[in-house]
């Protein structure tokens, strides 16, 4: 087993592999890429991942069922990365709501923040809406907020669900 320190060393160790170390993929994916390089050879019966970088792009974040369970430290790093993405999604959604309420209803920034927060949290608007544009925006933003909530919950729960299913699969695979 060879030790690889960072992304540059990883790319030098196997230049045929595409290493994603930019943006959010750096947070969530670099620990798995490092772990994947250090773990066992490619799974039996599949295409060689080193020769097929597009398949690596699609599965850079989670280990395959034939690979061992990710160590706790790397799992917590993965969970932190997913949580940061979810938090970013909430902040962006809140920003869209604040700007939308401010522009369509002419609400002061603080009232726009309150309305956007209440809709995003599922409670409903606080201020009465007076313009047709504001009502249309509130309707669209409410639908968007519901989808953002589902997406955020999925992003946060994905690593937990994957680890649970992976652990259960490992237990049944030993028998």
Notable characteristics:
175 residues; mainly alpha; Helix Hairpins; 2 domains; disordered N terminus
- Terminus-to-terminus distance: 28 Å
Let me know the number of strands: 0
CATH class of the largest domain: Mainly Alpha
CATH architecture of the largest domain: Orthogonal Bundle
Instruction: Give the overall average pLDDT.
Output: 74
Helix percent band:
55-70%
Report the portion of residues in β strands: under 5%
Q: Report the oligomer.
A: single chain
Helical region count? Answer: 6
- Helix/strand order: HHHHHH
Helix/strand class: mainly alpha
Determine the CATH topology of the largest domain. Helix Hairpins
Unreliable runs = 1-11, 13-59
- Total separate domains: 2
Structure summarized in a few sentences:
This protein is mainly α and 175 residues long.
Task: Kindly describe this structure.
It is elongated and about 60 Å long. The chain has 2 domains: 58 residues, no CATH class; 107 residues, Helix Hairpins, CATH 1.10.287.70. The relative contact order is 0.10. Helices cover 67% and strands 0% of the residues. It has 6 helices and no strands.
SSE topology:
Blueprint: H1 7-13, H2 23-38, H3 53-58, H4 72-105, H5 109-120, H6 132-173
Helix pairs in contact: 2-4, 4-5, 4-6
């Amino acid at each position: 087993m060879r030790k690889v320190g960072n992304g540059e060393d990883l790319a030098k160790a196997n230049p045929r592999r595409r290493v994603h170390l930019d943006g959010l993929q750096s947070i969530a994916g670099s620990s798995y890429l490092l772990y994947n390089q250090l773990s066992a050879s490619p799974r039996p019966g599949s295409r060689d991942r080193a020769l097929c970088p597009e398949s690596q792009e699609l599965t850079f974040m989670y280990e395959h069922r034939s690979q061992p369970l990710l160590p706790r430290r790397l799992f917590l790093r993965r969970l932190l990365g997913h949580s940061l993405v979810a938090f970013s999604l909430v902040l962006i959604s809140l920003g869209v709501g604040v700007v939308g309420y401010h522009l369509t209803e002419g609400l002061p920034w603080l009232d726009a923040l309150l309305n956007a927060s209440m809709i995003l949290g599922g409670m409903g608007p606080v201020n009465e809406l007076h313009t047709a544009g504001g009502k249309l925006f509130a309707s669209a933003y409410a639908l968007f907020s519901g989808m953002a909530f589902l997406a955020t919950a999925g992003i946060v729960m994905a690593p937990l669900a994957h680890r649970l299913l992976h652990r259960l699969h490992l237990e049944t695979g030993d028998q």
